[in-house]
Amino acid sequence: MDKIPHLPNIRPDQLDLPTPARLEPAGAFNHPPRILMLYGSLRERSFSRFLTEEAARILAHFGAEVRIFDPMELPMVGSVPETHPKVVELRELCLWSEGQVWCSPERHGAVTAVMKNQIDWIPLEQGAIRPSQGRTLAVMQVCGGSQSFNVVNTLRLLGRWMRMFTIPNQSSVPMAYKEFDDEGRMRPSAYYDRVVDVMEELFKMTLLLRGRSDYLNDRYSERSERARKAIDRQIEKL
């Protein structure tokens, strides 16, 4: 194989040359964008659930098909087999989704165990399929006191680790007990407007990436690794 003169360490046969044509959507999409929403509290009056439900109404108005996962009775990671019904439900929803919204309260300066447990049950790989890779992601948090960004920052880190496209915008609602009425509906405010902004951006980015995420996630290092393994398998057969 001919080497690239100024890039001698690169395998030319595995190097992709991106062009606008390669970013054309792969196939037609006749279904609404599919959005999975996760929240991080089991309380009866859960502000993270209220915020998630408010965001779901906005997404549904835009035209998305929305499903909210109920974390009640989801066992702790490692405590039950992966065939547990709640684990299967969560993983199937991840595979179904094209975008996700993660919303957690802040507890001790971090995400709650309820939130982290859901994310931990989502595998990076499930056979030859990656349930989270290529999905868009929006992150939100509710605070009991003054505004903080600890949770959304942590969720961004987790989203990157799960190979998701996390949108730039985010929502952090301080003193959440003041922002929702007795029915769990969010009151008009700048914080509510920000939630609309975040859902609008998520919806747009999900539309933009549909049919393109596989190509965007196709990596030189992984192609090279697959090529090396294929050669090793051929050698073993000799």
Summarize the structure.
By secondary structure, the chain is α/β, with parallel strands linked by helices. The protein has seven helices and six strands.
Topology (elements, then pairings):
Blueprint: E1 34-39, H1 47-62, E2 65-68, H2 85-96, E3 99-105, H3 113-121, E4 136-142, H4 150-161, E5 165-166, E6 171-173, H5 190-209, H6 213-216, H7 220-237
Parallel strand pairs: 1-2, 1-3, 3-4, 4-5, 4-6
Q: Which residue ranges are poorly predicted, with pLDDT under 50 across at least 5 consecutive positions?
A: none
Number of helices: 7
Oligomer state of the chains in this structure: single chain
Evaluate the radius of gyration: 21 Å
Structural class: alpha/beta
- Give the termini distance in whole angstroms: 22 Å
* Amount of beta strand: 5-15%
Helix share bin: 25-40%
Q: Describe the biggest sheet?
A: 6 strands, parallel
Q: What is the strand tally?
A: 6
Order of SSEs: EHEHEHEHEEHHH
Taking all residues together, what is the mean pLDDT?
Answer: 93
Molecular shape:
globular
